Amino acid sequence: MNKYLSKVFYVLTGSKRSLIFLMLVFVLTSVLEAVGIGLIGPFLRLASEPEFIHKIPILEWIYIQFSLTSSRQVIPILGLGIVALFCIKSLGYFFARYYIFQFTFDQKRLQSLRLFNAYLVVPYTFHLSRNTAGLIKNIILETNQFTLNCLQPILESAANLVVIVVLLLLLAKTDLLLLVMIMAILLPTFIAFYRLGGKFKAWGKIVSESQKEIIRTINHGLGGLKETRVIGCESYFGEQMEEQTLRHEKAATLFNTSQLLPRILIETSLIAFVVLFISISQLFLKQSSEDLTSVMGVFAIASMRLIPSASQLIQGVGRMRNGSYALDMLYFDLKELDREKVEKNIDITGNFKGGNFLKSQPGERQVIPFLRQIELSHITYRYSGTSEPAIKEMSLSIKKGESIALIGKSGSGKTTLVDVILGLLPPESGDILVDGVSIYNNLRYWQDLIGYIPQSIFLTDDTIERNIAFGVPDDKIDYGRMKQAIKAAQLEELVEELPDGIKTSVGERGVRLSGGQRQRIGIARALYHEREILVLDEATAALDTETERLVSEAISSLAGTKTLIIIAHRLSTVEHCDRIYLLDKGTVVKSGSYQEVVG
């Protein structure tokens, strides 16, 4: 349990002192409840024997202070006191439960934000070995599991444990035999459920893993809907979905059904106990009917709270074991994220090697002064788990306003080099200098110089306007820059043809646009954000010849005004470049003009 709680406290975000306040509220309400229940016995005794008040000092004191003339007059006063006590207790219990829900769901919100922000700023290498479905599952589902099946049960179990302990102490004072018999009923149920803990954890693991596979199947089936429909493999994804939903259904059914057992077992056992206790009392203990009424009155009221508290405590332990897999997922993921951030000198606010790594806010961009040239000096990069470096001691320079092309066969290191230039992969050795200043002094400022245009442009299911001004709130969009970017990317004709202009929705992943139109929106996006350096990674590879020509014209028109770094397989797309670099096995084997390298 200590190990379990240490993981919970590691995952928790924000102040933990509020938990102490919560526990104090639990103790206070439980004590008030115990006192109220403890008064039920004397109250029932007084109802049948009013003269008994003179044997209880506090009731005798009330009798004298209020100048009462009859013992029966104390009964309504005591009754009102008990009612008031239960009202105060109930109010405290209500607010305690409200605080539990508020605290736990606030933790879900904070955990989702913490994971999402961490995934955004953690080094790019982390994402090379992770599945998007798994990350989505952690942000949405595992945080929910942690909230409902770890944190909430811990708080509820703590509250129920306080209630049970106080009530058992009250029953011990009322009748020791009563306590022993109740413990004999509760303990076997606790032990049985504790031994089932392994099953609960296994069911929780199945639920978590099946949810991950469900998300992955949905991503694959719907994400590639065109290919799915043309190939005719709808049944394949349907069968995968059926298999995983069936696994989820079975595990969830078994766990939730098992949670009904504590209440059923405890209620049945306590009914049997009542009959047994009364029988023993009458046959062997020879208790008076008044004493038996008083004891059973306390027991009856105590049972009203003891049964739900005991069953909820047992259920809570089961839920905690069921949620332990989700807790492990969050714990180990956060541990790995924290380790990555420490190794790369990144914290959750985004500091990288002393520089601000977070996205600059609109209007607050600061960039490295770029007046002369970019120099890559002896860059070496090696992927984790590989012996041979992908980039070996590579050096090259790019003058401001120059267009360069990186060519070479697959596996030559072009994409790795671009990822290093983009600041996504920190080199094992070497440096990148802008006018003699290392970009690693402030990587965010360097990235504010760069626009990236890949082969497949990422477009959100939104308007052309919001896709160009990607990441900028509506009220901060600069329409002057927007117009200039659209013109430079040769999108004016398209926008004029559309009935809603730049307010036209492009559909999910730009499905309503052609490949060339999507690429030009990518170019317009880079231009809108006023990037000095444009990196085009196979930007025209997936286009037909005519569309490629149009996009190439848009790119060529930027030559001289922007510094261009182009990766291309089609040599026709790099004819206009000032310098060509031919790469092979992570090194530059040839460089020069197009005629010198290709011709």
Automatic annotation (TrEMBL):
The alphabetized UniProt keywords are: ATP-binding, Cell membrane, Membrane, Nucleotide-binding, Transmembrane, Transmembrane helix, Transport
Keyword NADP in the entry? The reply is: no
The UniProt entry, under InterPro entries, shows: AAA+_ATPase, ABC1_TM_dom, ABC1_TM_sf, ABC_transporter-like_ATP-bd, ABC_transporter-like_CS, P-loop_NTPase, Type_1_exporter
Annotated GO MF terms:
ABC-type transporter activity; ATP binding; ATP hydrolysis activity; ATPase-coupled lipid transmembrane transporter activity
Q: What is this protein called?
A: ABC transporter ATP-binding protein/permease
- One Pfam match, by short name? ABC_tran
Q: Which domain of life is it from?
A: Bacteria
Q: Where in the cell is it found?
A: Cell membrane
Query: Native species of this protein?
Result: Limnofasciculus baicalensis BBK-W-15
In this protein, which residues make up the domain named ABC transmembrane type-1? Answer: 20-322
Listed SUPFAM superfamilies: ABC transporter transmembrane region, P-loop containing nucleoside triphosphate hydrolases
What PANTHER family does the database record attribute to this sequence? ATP-BINDING CASSETTE SUB-FAMILY B (PTHR24221), ATP-DEPENDENT LIPID A-CORE FLIPPASE (PTHR24221:SF632)
Every ABC transporter domain range: 374-599
Q: How does it sit in the membrane?
A: Multi-pass membrane protein
* Residues passing through the membrane, by range: 20-44, 77-100, 154-172, 178-196, 264-285
The record's Gene Ontology cellular component field reads: plasma membrane
Presence of the UniProt keyword Transcription regulation in the record: no
